[in-house]
Amino acid sequence: MQWALKLRLVRCYELPAYEKSGDFTLECVFHDKEGDRIHASVKKPVLDKVRHILKDGHLFAIKNIIVAENRMKYKTTTSKYKINFITKTHVCEIFDDSFPSIMFDFKSFNDVKNAEIEETMLFDVIGQVVARDSPQSREFGGRETRLLDIVLQDYEYVYSL
What are the UniProt keywords, alphabetically (predicted)? Predict the structure, then answer.
């Protein structure tokens, strides 16, 4: 628990905590000064305390956290660990112009096409949406989920012709 970290928030999103309970957790991806990423989970007891503070792209000092093995099925980082916020966690926005802002984890179209990435890992790509299907409802992880299939065009390929 005696950790004190300086991290930039890359992204936050809500995830249902339990089936049909209506509760959710706030899931976050942070990066450190070297650009290494770590996932963090903020559960209900801490949610109201930090939700209004956490903003994508902002830099934070975070202390009193639990570091645990990351056992999530779909991972947002390659780190084998994740952070869990607890009731004693303290989060404070700080300002440091020398701290880098590495907001994206880009993968090339070749990496995606050649399956050189872990399919359960989240990543970023740049492309132009050239087609999309109608939204479909599917069961995913025991929950009804709406999915939208899109087709992206690779700008590098278009501009190299």
Answer: DNA-binding
